[in-house]
Amino acid sequence: MNLIRKYSQNTFFFILLFFILSFLIPKFSIFNNLLELPNNYKLPIAENITFIIKWLIEDASFGIFSFKEFTRAIGSILDAPSIFLKGLLATGFKLETTSGGNILIQPFSWISVIFIFVMIGVWLKDVSLSIFVAISFFYVAFFDLWESTMTTFSSIIVAVIIGIIFGTLLGILSFKFNRINNILTPTFDFMQTMPVFAYLVPALMLFGYGPAAALIVTLIYAMPPMARVTKNALDQVDSEVIELGQMVGCSTFQMLKKVLLPSIKPRIMLGVNQVIMLTLNMVIIASMIGAGGLGYDVWQSLKQLRIGQGFEAGIAITLVAIVLDRLSQKIASRRPVYHHMELNFFQKYKFLIVSFFVIIFTWLIGQKYSFLIILPQDLTFSSGRFWDGIIDYININYHDSISSVRDFFFIYLLKPFKLFMLSAPWFLFVLLVFILGFKIKGIYLGIQCSILVLFIALTGFWEKAMITVYLIGICVLLANIIGIPIGIIASQNDRVHKITKVIIDTFQTLPAFVYLIPVIMIFSVGDFSAMIAVVLYAIVPAIRYTDNGIRQVPESFIDAATTVGCTKFQILKKVQLPLSLPDIMLGVNQTLMMGLSMLVITALVGTRDLGQETLIALSKVDPGRGITAGICVAFIAITVDRLINAWSHNRKLELGLN
Amino acid sequence: MKKLLISFILPILFITFIFSSSSRADVPESKDTLKIVIMGYSGDNIIMQIYGELISKLGYNIEYTPADYIGQFAGMKSGDLHIGSPGWDTTAKDVMADAWGSGNVLNMGNIGISVFEDWWYPLYVKDKCPGLPNWEALLDPACAESLGTIETSPKGRFLEGPIEWGGTGNLRIEALGLPFEVINAGSDAALGADISAAVKRQEPILAWTWQPYWLPAMYPGEFVEWPEYGDGCYDDASWGPNPNKTHDCGNPTGFMWKSAWTGGESIWPKAYDVWRKFTLDEKTMGDLVYKSDIDGVDTMDVAKGWIAENENIWSEWLK
Hints:
The complex is a heterodimer.
Chain A: H1 2-24, H2 32-35, H3 45-58, H4 67-91, E1 93-96, E2 102-105, H5 110-123, H6 127-142, H7 146-176, H8 178-193, H9 196-207, H10 211-222, H11 224-235, H12 239-247, H13 252-281, H14 283-288, H15 294-303, H16 307-332, H17 345-348, H18 350-366, H19 384-423, H20 426-440, H21 443-459, H22 462-492, H23 494-509, H24 512-523, H25 527-551, H26 555-563, H27 568-597, H28 599-604, H29 610-619, H30 623-655
Antiparallel strand pairs in A: 1-2
Helix pairs in contact in A: 1-20, 3-30, 4-7, 4-10, 5-6, 5-18, 6-16, 7-8, 7-10, 7-11, 7-13, 7-15, 8-30, 9-10, 9-29, 9-30, 10-13, 11-13, 13-16, 15-16, 16-19, 16-23, 16-24, 19-22, 19-24, 20-21, 20-30, 21-30, 22-23, 22-25, 22-27, 23-25, 24-25, 25-27, 26-27, 27-30, 29-30
Chain B: H1 2-24, E1 34-38, H2 42-57, E2 62-66, H3 71-77, E3 87-88, H4 89-101, E4 105-122, H5 125-128, H6 141-146, E5 156-160, H7 169-176, E6 180-184, H8 188-200, E7 207-211, H9 214-218, E8 221-223, E9 254-261, H10 269-277, H11 282-293, H12 299-309, H13 311-318
Parallel strand pairs in B: 1-2, 5-6
Antiparallel strand pairs in B: 3-9, 4-7, 4-8, 4-9
Helix pairs in contact in B: 2-12, 11-12
């Protein structure tokens, strides 16, 4: 125990030394030429990447067809199902008649779509879910968002299904083959942390402007959690279960299908939940590249400062997310029903048959009576003015007192930290990261991490990288300081748990822009507004993982603590918290990932970080520059992630877990 | 006889066939869907929707595709988008030059609306900075301070558009010795939110705005008057009031440019012809934008309203 204490003191000693030196060195002019990396050491990384991408798009070829034709073909295959669904649900189909005219076949009736979803709830024997689904869809219909919602729905359902299938496959592959895992883990880090704008132009070039590119971009961001969760779940399958499978003589495939996958199903559902949430997170960006739907509604309303309208469309996005999530969770946890007697065809498929007839019936009549296809405009309404009024009221009456909070944060937290990060010499950072890695795990981790940091210095994006570290660092810190206690409270009280779950689900799916624009109206453009948005988004995993982690502490430990006479507080402090620390640390890691993924949004409110760099690259049509900035973001994430992971692994060993 | 038939009559038949088929190749030449970009700005939406409704009168299949201002050029280069939303000299010069230079995107001429972007303030700022709209009023430290925020104090804050629009605020501040600092709003939505919130609580603000746009139409205000832009101001230091610096002048005005995918020219020649002829004047544009932004009429209804009232104008384009 003593040894451990000494060891941690040592690490903190180095961090302290780093801070002191960082303060002192810029004060002496002799070190001036050490502070900035000389220009001729900078590597032409961006230029080379631009060159490679131009080559891929323009010249690369497999002989018979070019690389671009290949990706285009994939794109049109990916497009087909969502275009078809969109036709069925939202836009209908245009058919050409022999005489050259057009006839429009209307989409399915809104009434029948609502009916089907309610029927699914009934089939799952969950009445409250049915009611929730019905309310959500009626909301969408009466707020005049039906067509947009169905457009969004048809594109994300395809993204979610592909994400789940490929995520699971990749997860299984990395479980089976260590080498694949070693390649995929950092790849996933890249996919999750690189700001979308960094690879938007290449994606548009290769997959075409439209749903396919939007789908690819969405998958890049939303699929990794599925693969990670699958792999982790497979890792944790009890060895006895596997032995049983081997004893009864399963083949590899049978083992997977009949033993492994069923036993990890509950855990995998967390991955499904994340794929759905993250997919819906991307709808605004997807709408910028031609996916349309609710994302476009939100973005357009906010551009014209119709906050209420943006809010309504944003809520529709959240409702779609929650409906999809709850339905999928419920379907997954459904148990097979055994009947006493043989059912005939009609009894067996009564729901399907009824649904089928309702769809066809309303669809056919709807070709003539349009009110069946979409709710007449006269019946729809908007609460837009109401919300605009509230924001105006707060802005006009409470601005002064609220902005003094901002000023306090700015003077005592944001500004000093920013100045410090910008003045600290780059080589000290490289050194610090090396020492931390070395102390926590060993020389290998130290070298690995310091190379990543050195790379950032060599790209020439050091200053923007430091602003990124400053902004996201503060946000992650705040998110954890606020989020972990909330998670702890939620873990102790079921009612709080339920309420927080609704709130954090909302924050994870409500497009950040919906609350960011009101925040800007009150706090004005700048780092503080960006900070609020990032904290609101990044706080979600801090709460979720803490809550889940504490709840998963085995009952027996708590019983034991109760019998020896621990108070509730003592149990929390001495049993639950230490045992759930690995989970909480995973939450910390995820707040970092979420925070960094918000760089896309912070750039849109004008922070001068790496996210902004990707936006500039976008407008200068310089893909290399954007991707290089994106790589820097990923490297920051990977460095911190590896250090935290190694540290929490050490803690696990100390606690005798695993 | 047979020889004559082959050498004489067949070519004639062939030629008449070609001519007849070309005259029969009526508009629309192709049933392929023509994708028209809309971006969600009222002014641009109205332009694109007027055009879209007109060519659907001719029988073309069209689709309005939502896209990003900058991103649409990549879409046109690859032929995924066909008719682009207008690009502004003031914000998309590089991107447009790159797109037109690639050969895959056509410059279809300008719409006839000059666009103007510069430093703007709501009228009540004049109380704090007497002398406005003349730029020299901004040299006064008290004026600058009243326009400042905690980030910039004691200097004033100039809220500029997103950095990727390529604003030159910093250079102008340096050249004219203004006690101001540039703060970038990362997106038009953020810029609009900040300005409109400040105006609502009557707080002094100095920000980047443009015309035609709903904001200067909605709130009473003025653009700062600078030494007028002239050739050389941006690259010749000796030009203008400061002999040692460039950018000592106001912003050059520019135009809204029409773009389209090159490959579409042969697929929908008539639709492209209409797009080339399409023009609107500034007064009309301002009225249309006002109808949409201030009166809250849907842009599509505004577009249809204009079509209904101005047949004499658009019938020329469709000829």
